[in-house]
Amino acid sequence: VEIEKGILEEECSNLLKDFFRNLRKKQKDE
After folding, report:
1. pLDDT of the residue at 21
2. How far is CA 20 from the centre of its chain?
3. Which pLDDT tens digit goes with each residue over 1-30?
4. What is the distance between the alpha carbons of residues 29 and 24, in angstroms, rounded to a whole number?
5. Buried b vs exposed e over 4-23: b needs ≥16 C-beta within 10 Å?
6. Where are the alpha helices (DSSP H) in 1-30?
7. What one-character DSSP code corresponds to residue 1?
8. What pLDDT shows up at residue 18?
9. Cα–Cα distance, 5 to 12 (Å, whole number)
10. CA dihedral for 8, 9, 10, 14, sign (positive or negative)
11. How far apart are the C-alpha atoms of 17 and 5, rounded to whole Å?
12. Cβ contacts of residue 2 below 8 Å, gap of 6+?
């Protein structure tokens, strides 16, 4: 269970990184 939790956390952090990266791109475009 612990290993699964770690993988989920890693995926979430990667999703957040991509999300914020896209947010910055949108702000620059405007």
Report:
1. 97
2. 7
3. 788 989 999 999 999 999 999 999 999 887
4. 9
5. eeeeeeeeeeeeeeeeeeee
6. 2-29
7. -
8. 98
9. 11
10. positive
11. 18
12. none
